[in-house]
Design a protein that fits this description.
The protein is of the alpha/beta class and 284 residues long. The protein folds into two domains: 251 residues, Rossmann fold (3-Layer(aba) Sandwich); 29 residues. 33% of the residues lie in helices and 16% in strands. It contains ten helices and eight strands. Strand 5, helix 6 and strand 6 form a beta-alpha-beta unit. The radius of gyration is 20 Å and the shape is globular.
């Protein structure tokens, strides 16, 4: 992008008006995202958002970029395909806790192994909002929902512990109420070479009356300044603490999917035969 074409956060907003419920945490996530894109001077033509199903899946509609709205739970493999096809693009995955941790949860460990250079934002409201309030993988124990009228009987998943166990190379948590901190965190995720994944706590004011903004404000705390994000053991201990910490839990530099694909392509050129015709002759 030229010096004359520097964009402001509002310039990244599409002509589609968000239709989330008033007070939804996703509004804060959207504001932080546009601030981060402006700070990183991202050209919209180089930006791709692949989204899943759910309230947060509409995120890609509201940003001026290339967007792909996938089937439920299939945003991650779709985004990996986009990045493999054009490594120069800034690729984001955006979805909710149901889309990412339930329906699409099986993709996560294998995506972590590949380590593509993209960023996954899981907008976690601890409920299925779009389909009218069913219990999700992160709903608190005992929470009454449309599908659990006698309270959730299964304990919630802990996304940060899962991400650490799976081996993601950049793991963080944010709270949609703190837009400024989230915008900075998004920039750090973009600078990271590898798969960065962020749990964004984004309260639902309509269907979740437990995990509210006020409830979360009493529990969230920034990660201590002396935490070493390269120490995985320390990251596990931090994730197991009672406080809901926000910030970067862990990051490490590992070969990315793009680097591994380039290596395979280069090595394959050294293997005989060198042409498709020669390969056919070998097996005919």
């Amino acid at each position: 992008m030229s010096e004359q074409a520097v964009l402001k956060p509002k310039d990244y907003k599409s002509d589609i008006t968000p239709i989330w419920c008033p007070g939804c945490g996703d509004f804060g996530d959207l504001a932080a995202f546009t601030q981060a894109m402006a700070a990183m001077k991202v050209d919209p033509k180089d930006l791709v958002i692949v989204s899943g199903i759910g309230c947060s899946g509409r995120f890609s509609h509201f940003i001026k970029c290339y967007a792909y709205h996938t089937a439920h739970g299939r945003a991650v493999p779709t985004a990996i395909g986009v990045k493999a096809a054009n490594p120069d693009l800034h690729v984001f995955v955006v979805g909710g806790d149901g889309d990412g941790l339930s329906i699409g949860g099986g993709h996560l460990p294998h995506a972590a192994r590949r380590n593509p250079d993209l960023t996954y934002l899981i907008l976690d409201n601890a409920v299925y909002g779009l389909t009218k309030g069913q219990g999700s993988p992160t709903s608190p124990l005992g929470m009454v929902t449309a599908t659990t009228p006698f309270g959730m009987q299964d304990p919630p998943l802990d996304p940060i512990l899962m991400f650490l166990a799976y081996g993601f190379t950049f793991i963080a948590r944010a709270f949609s109420s703190n837009v400024k901190a989230l915008a900075v965190l998004l920039q750090e995720a973009m600078k990271h070479k590898g798969f960065s994944i962020i749990q964004l706590i984004s309260p639902c004011p309509t269907f979740n009356q437990i995990v509210t903004f006020d409830w979360m404000k009493e529990r969230v705390a920034p990660i201590p300044e002396d935490h070493d994000p390269t120490d995985k053991d320390a990251a596990f201990r931090l994730a197991l603490s009672k406080e809901v910490h926000t910030g970067i839990f862990y990051r490490s530099e590992q070969p990315t999917m793009e680097e591994k694909l380039a290596f395979q392509a280069e090595e394959s050129r050294k293997v005989e035969p060198n042409t498709l015709e020669e390969l056919f002759q070998r097996f005919l």
